[in-house]
Amino acid sequence: MASVPEHLSPNLHAYLVAHSTAPDPLLSRLITETAERFPDWVNLQIGPEQGVFMTMLAQLMSASQAIEVGTFTGYSSICLARGLSAGDKLICCDISEEWTSVARAYWQEAGLADRIELRLAHALDTLQSLASSPSFDLAFIDADKAGYVAYWEELVPRIRRGGIVLVDNTFSHGRIFQAHPDPDAQAIKDFNGHVLADERVDLVMLPVGDGLTMARKK
């Protein structure tokens, strides 16, 4: 499971999770399997409270076309796809066959395989291959931090007016405040400044997980 966010005490985070809708048995098994198979990468998985938020947001928006950059073992994609309806589409961008093989198995078991399309390639190549028209309702970025600005610049023109872009890890575990941030933290710091200056969107940074920026296209 995702680590306790630094901006919350362990007790408060546990209380928050306990008073949000709990992961169902399928998601609970995915959390466990991910931790067992990829212990060095388990923090790439979003927390359960963030998953609930993303499902509810997709439902509230009546989103029908969504895209995710960074899929890992599929927790976030299941949460997004559950907010869509039959016949809707979620495109998932990732480069790891190993990680996404777990995701595909759980998509199938969850009955969501028909609404999720996995594209195994560098995400920037996938995004640039998409039609340039604004067709997506909802996007989620949770991948390599150095690529965030490039992913943002490819996605925003492809989001419809009123559509939402969610961006994960925008607190960078507090490392953005260090005098000499590591490369990932510096990339997040640069990204946060970049999107704040983007007049195409209104945005709010939410204290969900490791920081979740939500931008609405004007």
| SSE succession | HHHEHEHEHEHEHEE
What is the beta-strand fraction? 15-25%
Query: CATH first level: which class?
Result: Alpha Beta
| Level-2 CATH architecture | 3-Layer(aba) Sandwich
Mean pLDDT: 96
Global outline: globular
Query: Quick one: biggest sheet?
Result: 7 strands, mixed
The total tally of domains equals 1
Strands, count: 7
CATH superfamily: Vaccinia Virus protein VP39
The SS-based structural class is alpha/beta
- Individual helix count: 8
- Taking pLDDT < 50 over at least 5 consecutive residues as the criterion, the unreliable ranges are none
- Please tell me how large the radius of gyration is: 16 Å
Distance between the termini: 35 Å
How is the CATH topology named?
Rossmann fold
Q: Percentage of helical residues? A: 25-40%
Strand line-up in the sheet with most strands: 3-2-1-4-5-7-6
Model description:
The protein is an alpha/beta fold and 218 residues long. It has a single domain, classed as 3-Layer(aba) Sandwich (Rossmann fold), CATH 3.40.50. Helix content is 40%, strand content 20%. The protein contains eight helices and seven strands. Strands 3-2-1-4-5-7-6 form a seven-stranded mixed β-sheet, sandwiched between helices. Helix 3 packs parallel to helix 4. The longest helix has 14 residues. The mean pLDDT is 96.
